[in-house]
Specification:
Length: about 110
């Protein structure tokens, strides 16, 4: 388990105990964040699991694949250097202390 700070669309921040090996999206959903639709269930085809991650922390995450990049760049809320699709980020032990903010829906 690693601690991850999640801020919802109303600006409320909670710390969750995230399970290593699950995606960031699965961990957020498992902790009852209703703001995250995650419509495609993690197939990298909907962009409704979009999150912002602090830039310094984001730069240390595994690089995104082209599919993720294309979807994010189509989002009107895309922020270079901090946007990620949370279903494409697998939680590992190095992510303890990660700060994540849910992105508004397009
Ligand atoms: S849940 Fe659809 S792209 Fe992540």
């Amino acid at each position: 388990m690693v601690k991850i700070s999640v801020t919802d669309l109303e600006g409320q921040t909670s710390t969750i105990e995230a399970e290593v090996g699950l995606s960031l999206m699965e961990n957020i959903r498992n902790n009852d964040f209703d703001d995250m639709a995650a419509v495609c269930g993690g197939c990298c085809s909907c962009c409704t699991c979009h999150v912002f991650i602090e830039e310094e922390q984001c730069s240390k995450l595994p690089e995104m694949e082209d599919d993720e990049q294309y979807l994010l760049e189509d989002s009107e809320h895309f922020q270079s250097g901090s946007s990620r699709l949370s279903c494409q980020v697998e939680v590992d032990d190095s992510m303890d202390g990660l700060k994540v903010t849910l992105a508004p829906e397009d």
